[in-house]
């Protein structure tokens, strides 16, 4: 009984490793197409990280 359990676990481990290996290979072979869900805008606006204020000046003077 113990022997059959061990054999089953050995076979199951080998099978799962083989399936994982095939999955990795197939994932590596996929086309390198750009993601269609990414939206890329054409906005001429600049990114504003912060607006200069007294609070920012105080923060930067303390942070130095």
Automatic annotation (TrEMBL):
Task: Identify this protein by name.
Answer: Twin-arginine translocation signal domain-containing protein
Keywords attached to this Swiss-Prot or TrEMBL record, sorted alphabetically, are:
Molybdenum
**Organism (species):** Helicobacter apodemus
